[in-house]
User: Fold these one by one.
Assistant:
Number 1:
Amino acid sequence: MANHDILDNKNHQDIKVITHFDDKFSEKINSALIFPNEIKAAQRDYPILFIKNPETGQFQSVVLLGLVAGENLYINNGWQASYIPAMINKGPFIIGFEEKEENGEKVKQPIVAIDMDNPRVNKESGEALFLDDGQASPYLVQVNQSLKTLHDGSQLSQQMFAAFLKNDLIEAVALNIELNNGEKISLQGNYTLNEEKLAKLSGDALNELHSSGLLRLAYFITASLGNIQRLVDLKNKQ
């Protein structure tokens, strides 16, 4: 269970975080959430799909990392892709909110917290969080950028899916894969964009998607499905 501390340069001056990916320290998940502000970078390496949040029923975008549960084919003596999703790159950190009083009113301010029970967190090895003068280390600056990506992206995600749904672009997709050894894998519960409907957009619908930057993201998403073959190739090499 997570044990989150609000991060500060006094209580966590000596804390380090192991950042490499190997058999011991590996995110053994076959998908990871991503957000619209990551899609341009992510589509080069990963298949991008949509899933429904089991609690809210709302769509979320994910990158596919493996073909079976608990499998991450991008980890092999390090992370084998040019971009690491912010949800993973943030490490054992989260954004929390602290209530403070400003001008007689209570406002929620974002804060950074660290999971002290995460196995990557220790005092012996890894990347330091703070420099000797108490300033944030380059690693912590990177973490803060990943957290900002998640914070900003969560707002953009609602806008993106609202536009895709408005134009009836989202459709279910079943991924049926056969490996070289004859094993058959079927991935259900995923969604993507209908390329035919996307190509037929015109008038106000096309202009709205284009002006909002979502048209470009839509084409990135459909193009990313070519990376499913990369996953199949990695699986066949095992």
Number 2:
Amino acid sequence: MVVLRLDSLALSRSRFALSPFAETLAAVVQLARPYSEPWAAAWRERHRPAFLARLAGDGYARGLVELIAATKYLPDHLTLPPGGGMETTLESELAEVARVPDETAVAGLRTAQRHAWAGQRLDWLTGHGHGARAAALFREVWDTHLAADWPTRRAALQRDVTHRAGLLAAHGWPRALQRMNRTSEWVGADAIRFSDRPGPDRVVGPDGMLFVPVTAQRSSWLCEAPGRPFAMVYAARGTGEEADAAPTGDGEALARLLGVGRAQILRNLAVPATTSELALLLAQSVGTVGGHLAILRDTGLVGRTRVGRRVLYHRTELGDRLAAGPG
């Protein structure tokens, strides 16, 4: 069991961050494995043939991807903590990966191979510049398969952070960290159980740690690097796909009653969000969303709460009942 033991100052200095690289790593695993999370099925069907065709012509890339998809221990040079907080850029992360020394990358790959499913080999691990080669592959995956979807995915990740920040302000870190992954939970007063697999405990120092959401619903791993805070990657509450789903059944009735725009907003407020987050998620202007929210508030379907500098909108009990439909 891996436990993160927190210094007395760690919680007060812990924070959330975004990582486009972590989102890309999770996407690589989704595209490589022979099964799909239900929410990602349409995206995977569109992108997997081109992804596999790309790997077919590159033994190094194919070997790296197959190892990533088959191991319980991700290679160290692919799990560096993000350094830019909520504004972390893919370019900064790729540059860090590219700078990782070969000996560090090879050691991490060999450890990953020892923790992989049977049959994983490293005969593809030849040459040098392993960090740069991984960075080039991830850049290509991003450009081809993720860049177009990033604004919607980013909005979903920001909504998760906003939701957890609200829980943090109202109830403290134990509630904010609840159900971040299938195995994590608060242990005692000063520790987080990260995994039920065997492994050494980690001590989180006074600089705290980072919590990094990704849209893949089964993804969770720990990022660490010398001199950097630990980062816990976890599955966000939203997938970035909600706004793409056309209303059916009771959703159509709700749209007839409220109008399509207000019905979309009410459905998406199953998770509290700001006006700008809803605008990005629904590809509407902030003014349009604000007008819809004003009407929904006037009718008692939506309320709002201030968390720091953000104003979060949420469904009221009446809004929940209406969104749920008959029965």
Number 3:
Amino acid sequence: MSLDVSADLLAKAETGDVTDAEFVECVRTSLPYAWEMISGVVTDLNTGDAVFADNVIPPPDEQARGQLLRALASDAIRGGLERHFGVKLAFQNCHRVAAFRPAAVDSDRYRAFISPVGQLRNQSPELRDC
């Protein structure tokens, strides 16, 4: 299981009565590395005028990498994080996470980041097996 779901939260989920805040809190406590990385990228975005901010530092170990992959590969988790932080997340390789302002989702910079060319330009031999 990718999230540490308490018995109380699971019982609420059985009735369909889970708030976004409860879900996001579960993500925060279950995937602390992913939470910290994404929080940091969002903080960087919010401290300037840029349309996006990103992380280029690989995770320190496989457990951290797994947390990041779980967070961004799950539509529910990714969507919850995007709603919580008010951003659009984009992901390349095993670690390059970007947060875009919602207004920038239709920008050339966003399209370049998520394009096949953008993905290929972000490759390197040391990232091949990440």
Number 4:
Amino acid sequence: MNKPTLLILAAGMGSRYGGDKQIDGFGPNAETILEYSIYDAIRSGFGKVVFIVRQEILEESKEIFIPKFGNLIPLEFVVQTLTNRVPEAFQDPDRKKPYGTAHAMLCAKDVIKEPFAVINADDFYGEEAFQALGNFLTHDVKPDLHCMVGYAVKNVLSDYGTVSRGVCDVSPEGFLTGMIERTAISKKETGISHEADGEKLEISPDNPVSMNCWGFHHSIFEETERLWLSFLEENKENLKSEFYIPKVANAIIQEGKGKIQILEGGKIWFGVTYSQDKEHVMKELKSLHSEGKYPAKLW
């Protein structure tokens, strides 16, 4: 059986952070956050890494990462553009905003033929998450059975502003039944809430959310492409529309084309949305090295 692939979404603009956080250094030796994900993936049985990047950071990404661990695991780089997998009839020169996470995933269709995990470049997920993903993608995944590592919303917020999270509904059997992307979640003195468009929604602290830590059978690309073409047709006039992975997940569930199992493994998370988050992330990584979770130098 083929070893699973790790697909890293690293094409974000980092507008709230103020720079390219996917290639910024956070570890004791200036390691990027995604290097910890790759380290954990290698020791969890993954066999290849695919980066989705913007053209502007392609060469710098190669210069940083290939010398560090290119001899330990095969690497591929794919560029997400506003024309990649966009039929000419839907290409609009006035569009500036990237199309989102599901489009980024679809850009990797030609280089992934095996089960794969999808993660964000700027999130630290923890070794347990990759062990759970590696085991599922090696032994349990099927064309109609995928997975997601769930995290309690109380553990995945920022002290410095709102965050976007896929808020999940889960069946008693542990399968995802639906997800809504909430784009303005924050913690207040009264609890955790989502406030947008004049509406306020209270969210239970233990409610599982998606941190874009998914595991898919490669058949997901066919469903994603079908939904992608429908999305483009429906959003021809909306130049800020985004095609998210939760949209794909919801569709295959609602249409009865697959199930998504929620995996235990979301034990630890931290990430960077705002520049102020950097100090906290650096402190957490230093602590993990001191505890022996990671060697003095990753590579």
